[in-house]
Amino acid sequence: MWRIWAAFVSFVIAFAIIITRLFYWQVLASESLRTAASSQHHVELLLPAARGSIYALDRSPLVINQPAFLVYTQPKIIKDVKLFTQQVSQVLGIEKDTLAEQVQEPDKVWVPLVHKAEIGVVDKLKELHLEGLGFEKEPKRYYPEASIAAYISGFVGSDVNGNDRGYFGLEGYYNQELTGKSGVIRQEKDAKGAPILIGEAMRIEPENGRDLVAWVDRAVQEIVDRRLMEGIRKYGAKEGSIVVMDPKTGGIMAMANYPSYDPAHYNMYDKSIYKNPIVAASYEPGSTFKVLVMSAALQEKLVTPTTTMDESGPVEVGEYAIRTWNNEYHGTITMTQVLEHSSNVGMVYVARKLGIETFLRYLTLFGFGESTGIDMEEETSPDLRPAKEWKDIDLATASFGQGIALTPIQMVRAVGSLANGGWMMEPRVVKEIIGAKSKTITLPPKKIRQVVSEATARIITEMMVSAVDQGEAKWAKPKGYRIAGKTGTAQIPVAGHYDEKKTITSFVGFAPADNPRFVMLVTLREPSSSPWGSETAAPLFFTIARDLFTYWAISPDSQ
Amino acid sequence: MKRILNIILGILPLCALILIGVEVFISNELAGTGGELANIESRISQEAGEREVLYTEVASASSLLVIRQKAETLGFADPGKNQIISLAPDQLPVAALYHLQ
After folding, report:
1. A159-210: per-residue pLDDT in tens?
2. Which CATH superfamily is domain A218-551 in?
3. I need a labelling partner for A206 at 20 to 30 A (CA). Which of A199, A269, A327, A549 fits?
4. What ipTM is given for this predicted complex?
5. Are the beta carbons of A456 and A298 closer than 8 angstroms?
6. Would you tell me how many other CB atoms lie within 10 Å of the CB of residue A466?
7. Which residues does chain A have within 8 Å of residue B63's beta carbon, measured at their own beta carbons?
């Protein structure tokens, strides 16, 4: 009897073992087995999405994709490691020993050698017919116009997962629009790895990134870039920037900075250079700010172009004495002459008429203390001090653009409102976004607010034309054109005080005055040839203006 | 009636066998063309890559930088400060006249 029971128990144990094992294979390990089987029977290919391109206004390419490859090796397949490292290191320009180390690392199945290798290099590697060497498409950015619009485009680097990501400029701001969505092909394959047509197949098409069409005019950008470099050399400046905007649309036609960098080789430059100073760095505007203060006083009907004041000497503000820039005084002068002579004493008179509250209200109306909303990743805005912190001396110095910090794009936007009948426009770099099947989304120009009336804008325009025609920079102005503008020379604050020798020179203006085609700001930091805006930034502005008049076939005195 | 039924019953399995045979033959032919498909897709990929290369070459050749360098090589120079812009039609190049029309 016991033998029967022993046999029975043995059978039960044996069945239990089998069922446990089956449970393991069919339930616990089923997923991994299914995946392993799938990899033997199916081929899965990623269909990478192309990153969107960036075009200039005339649809010429500013940033496009160029074929490139990830070069990798599968060490376990390499037959002759010595031959492999010798031949590959020669082509890639890597140290042979470094390559040998990478290839001979224990337990490595797949080793990346070079990212984004260009077609020429890849073709040379393919000619070697080496086993264990593989290539995967990894496009990289190409800049047909080289680095002339570097600060507009930004660059493409990698994120923490090694995927492409845009940084700064348009690449950073529009990263999501530019990045596409990869597709996938999953297909049953035969023993040779070829797809089986009647087998299982799944295909998800990639969604390529959207293209951007910018307001940037390629020719204007080239002019601005070239003239800035010439200006830096001629005036011995350490840094410089130029921005050109259409005052009617807010469209940015050109932006250039010195020093600059090559976005194709961004990693060869210090990180501090990546941020666009036009949108991310502040400066004290100096006398260029006077046109805004004067327009505020005109709008409030506190002064007219012919209102007079007595400029017989320095003006006392508390314990301070405010002098003119050249310590010359002209007696009774009109408001127009205050701008012509760039009189700090005259501006203190205007600021006192405004008072701190009204002055600050106009600073806010002109958009200072807030970001402009331009579509560039790195924009910042210096804060405005609250009204209770302002003293009389602060009002006085701010009236001629010292003791107040703003970004160049804020300055251009504000002066642009004077060129646009008093209407302030939101600066924009991108005009259109082109999606799949050429579906185009147009980003319409955006009016922010009317800062001053059209009448006030016309009056201040005439005063600015007079400032150009009669001011210190009249010698450099193109003959026959009505250009509204203002020079600026601001001392640079260093460790709590102003350096007497170091200046930021600038010129802001728009032309033709009666129907402005552009508003432009030129700034030069520490020009060594002369510290004055009338002798550095102003002639550079006029040189570029002359080029633009020719480019747009604007005749002298044309409407 | 019974005779017709018997004929149909005899033909049906034959038809089924023929259709099965045809399906096996066609499936076999299609299964073997996967390799050709892979070749075609590889060629498409290669052509697309070459097209991208040519596009970048065209973009580079038509860049303002290259045009400026070629212009300088050909002897073009920047105009001086005094530039005369004339709008008289007989002084315009033919292409501009066409554009004005």
Report:
1. 888 889 999 999 999 999 999 898 888 877 777 666 676 677 788 888 999 9
2. DD-peptidase/beta-lactamase superfamily (3.40.710.10)
3. A199
4. 0.75
5. yes
6. 17
7. 144-146
Average confidence score pLDDT of chain A: 91
Mean pLDDT of A149-166: 91
Tell me if A144 and B60 make a contact (CB, 8 A cut-off).
yes
Average pLDDT over every residue of A510-515: 96
Give the pLDDT band (50/70/90) at residue A105.
Answer: confident
Among A198, A200, A552, most B C-beta atoms within 10 A, so best to mutate, is A198
Identify any residues that bridge with A518 across adjacent strands, giving them in sequence order.
Answer: A511
Partners of B85 on chain A (C-beta within 8 Å) are 550, 553, 555
Domain ranges of chain A: 68-80+108-138, 218-551
Q: How confident is the model at residue A345 (pLDDT cuts 50, 70, 90)?
A: very high
pLDDT at residue B65 in the model: 87
On whether the pTM is more than 0.90, the answer is no
The B residues from 37 to 56 touching A (CB cutoff 8 Å) are: 37-38, 49, 52-53, 55-56
Residues A161, A163, A164, A165: what is their CA dihedral angle, to the nearest 10 degrees? -40
A512 preceded by cis ω (within 30°)? yes
- Give how far Cα A370 sits from Cα of A59, A186, A405, A447, Å: 32, 51, 12, 16
Per CB-CB distance under 8 Å, the chain A contacts of B53 are 66-67, 119
Task: Give chain B positions within 8 Å (CB) of A546.
Answer: 81, 83
Taken as a whole, chain A contains a residue count of: 559
The CA angle A78-A79-A85, to the nearest 5 degrees, is 60
Q: Break chain B into its structural domains and give their ranges.
A: 2-72
Q: How far is B3 from chain A (nearest CA, A)?
A: 41
Minimal C-alpha gap between A550 and chain B (Å): 8
Residue A559 has what pLDDT?
Answer: 44
Window 35-74 of A, Cβ < 8 Å to B: 60-61, 64-67
Which tens digit of pLDDT belongs to each residue from B39-66? 888 888 889 888 989 999 999 999 998 9
- Between residues 162 and 201 of chain A, which touch chain B (CB distance below 8 Å)? 189-190, 192-199
Tell me the C-alpha to C-alpha distance, in Å, between residue A36 and each of A45, A199, B34: 16, 18, 22
| A124: pLDDT strictly greater than 60 | yes
What distance in Å separates residue A59's CA from the closest CA in chain B? 11
- In this model, does residue A499 exceed pLDDT 80? no
